[in-house]
Amino acid sequence: MGMMNQPTALEHILITTKVEKIINWSRATSVWPMTFGLACCAIEMMAAGASRFDFDRFGAGIFRATPRQSDLMIVAGTVTYKMAPIIKLLYDQMPEPKWVIALGSCATAGGPFDSYHTIQGVDKVVPVDVYIPGCPPRPESLIYGFMKLQDKIMASSMADRYKEIFEAVV
Amino acid sequence: MFKNEEMEINMGPQHPSTHGVLRLKLKLDGEIIRHCRPVIGYLHRGVEKICENKTFFQGQVWTDRMDYCSAVANNLGWAEAVEKLFGITVPRRAKYIRTMLNEYNRLASHLIWLATHALDIGAMTVFLYAFREREAVLDLFEAFCGARLTTTAFRIGGLREDLPPGFEKMARTFQARFLACIDEYETLLTENRIWKKRTIGVGILKADDAIAMGVTGPVLRAAGVPYDIRKAFPYAAYDEMEFAIPTKPEADTYARYLVRLEEMRQSHRIINQCLDGLPEGPVMAKLPKILRAEVNEVYHPTECPKGELGYYLVGEKGSTNPYRFHVRAPGFINLQALPMMVEGTLVADVIATIGTLDVVLGEIDR
Amino acid sequence: MENNPNSEPETQAGPCAYDLKAAPNRQVVLPKTVPLPSLKLWRAEQEAAAAAEAAKWQKTLADYEAAKAKAEAEGKDAPKPPVRPVAKPDANDMKFPAPAPATDPDLLRLQEVLGDKVEEAFQQAGELTCQVAREAVQEALRLCRDDDALHYEMLADETATHYPAAKDFAFSVVYHLTSIRRRKRMRLRILIPDGFEPDTATTVYPTANWLEREVWDMLGIRFSGHPDMTRILCPEGWEGHALRKEYPVLGLGQREIDFREDRSGMLNRRALEKAGFQSLNLNPPKAE
Q1: Less crowded by CB within 10 Å, the N or C end of chain B?
Q2: B68 and chain A: CB distance < 8 Å anywhere?
Q3: Can you tell me the distance from the alpha carbon of C167 to that of C65, in angstroms, rounded to the nearest whole number?
Q4: CB B362 within 8 A of CB B327
Q5: Do residues C58 and C121 share a domain?
Q6: Domain carrying residue C60
Q7: Domain B7-365 is of which CATH architecture?
Q8: Interchain contact, A92 vs C265, CB within 8 Å
Q9: What's the pTM?
Q10: Which residues lie across from A37 on neighbouring strands?
Q11: Contact criterion met (CB below 8 Å) for C35 and C165
Q12: Which of C24, C37, C155 sits opposite B53 (nearest CB)?
């Protein structure tokens, strides 16, 4: 019937949705990354944050130096044996909810460095949400990967997240 | 009543201003540093060992990733070292193009230095302006070899192919507007009271100490020693180029800042000469498909934007791989001088000093 | 390493099965030759090659004479006379730089002052190389730095190479010196057996501090008199010296770490809580 399709007076000023969706939307559009550039990919991360490929327009322009105030750890560069426990410590210091992007081939799978001191991928140390291959990936790739992470955050459910974190213990 | 103890803190591998994974163990007395000990090795990837199993053609790929801010300079060093090992002569046109790309790389590296150094000290605008120019230089690299950062631009014996059409037009457009950009950075920083207060008299390394510690590059030139490998031991086409070596006597951070800005202007001058005087001819020497070495060892020094980058190669008879590959990284040697420059100064000066040394942990740790 | 769930399986399923164990860059191949550039060795090699070529030519001639005599005896035509093979001119832009005897005044000065401590001096590829006796290295470096005719103010690089196939020595330690004022470079070299500790260069050139630490870390050569002989690139407790030829590229299994059981950090936190580390300081303050 015609009356069902016309908006009522209240719908001009009210949106009804789930609380979870609002929380996910606010988390996805204000992800604050931590400055964690290890190697060459850090330069491309800086270029992504600089003038031409502005990262700030996604709400993620504020790179926090301390893990205690950040949501996202972009592991940009090679993970070595000496650095691995430090990465784990930094990941533990980040408060929930937290996400990890593995930027570049080195963080994904060790990259071109198949040697005695290189860990073949940061996912042996911390759980990774988005992998961005490339050596180094262009800033556009980083932005695409970040948008995929935003999609993942928007689609995530708080109950599943809680179970995921504590499944090792429960 | 109050005990006055030294506090040991860790300026850890994850720090916004340490330009990579550098760890400094500082013993502080209030804000003054009594003792500083750098701990490196957090990016040690075993490049020297890896390249012992790769051929001379393949080894260039790993050289990009050592000093990742100036990949083309690393590639040039490798190509020239292998050519010296085998006694290969490179055509003149290839030498000119290599020189031009090397100088563009010097611009790109100095722009990153300026951006991060200024960002550490607090001038965030310069970061955005410098990266705007750097994107234009990276467009040129991408037009030539397809990659922005880790270029693998050269081949043993010359170049893979000639300059693409439209490269010269892009380069000349960039050249026309670049000097005005350096002037723009100067208006922001050179007479800025805050910049001068944070950099004059900070991180002093006099000439005698610098030579004793083996420090080269802009750090040595800002101490008054006019030593530039492009003039002292010319390679590529530098013996045909006309340029000046900027030096300053004060040997502090402000002097190094002025020296590097002047170096950018001289690079601009060299690129103009390369573009104007580019000779015709082939760009690749005639080589066998497989390069088998004879017993020989070479040490080939080049002037990287950070200092003297030396490649040491030992060839084994009949082998396609280097027997030993060693890189004399300028950052490794320059970082040794950091405790000398920093003990007795304040914590904030450490940040300025690391920025002015222009260290890249990729080449330090290899 | 096979029991570790982390290491790659020997054969992989899927469209492309890569045999990783047989990958060429993962094999440990001990070198059989000693690629130490040396004028004496090169001359010996050239003479041996010339002698072998001459002997082969004599044998070809003798064979030809014998075949000719046999053909004449049987009444057949004489075989073709042999032609001495000439080296084909190489069309490549490549000319190997051969070592030449020392004519440079710097090398002559070193030979003059140090006498028989200089074991060898030659020039190759535009570079000067001088090999000194291993006990005299500090004296040679001091001479290079302080002598007015030499004046090598800066140590550019110090590194070492492992030669497992050599009999009298195991490593060569190489010092690259630069003279800024005279625009000259030189290489000093010593050959040392395994276990020998050369004198440190830090008393002459303070640059050598970290360079010698790196040589210790990578190759296991200690330098006597060094102020701080610890590992610099690999972590403190690392076993093995990476750039030795018998050390595999993949290492001795140290890189197979796995923190996957404790991804969330909860197991660590529970363990700490059980051990009594409270996140809040609920203990009464203790007097100092």
Answers
A1: N
A2: yes
A3: 44
A4: no
A5: no
A6: 37-80
A7: Orthogonal Bundle (1.10)
A8: yes
A9: 0.89
A10: A76
A11: no
A12: C24
